Amino acid sequence: MLKEEIFNDKEKLKILSRVVAHYLGDGCVTNKYAAYFNKNDALLNNFERDITTLFARIHLTKGKYNSGTKLIQIQNKEIIQFLKELVSDYRSYALRLPNFVNNKELQKEFLRAIYDDEGCVALRVFKKTNEIKRNLTLASKSQKFIEEIKDLLEKSFNIQSNKINRYDKVVEKKIFTIRTLSITGKKNFERFREEIDFYHPVKRERLDAMTSSYLGK
Question: Which CATH number fits domain 113-212: 3.10.25.10, 3.40.50.360, 3.20.190.10, 3.10.28.10?
Answer without folding.
Answer: 3.10.28.10
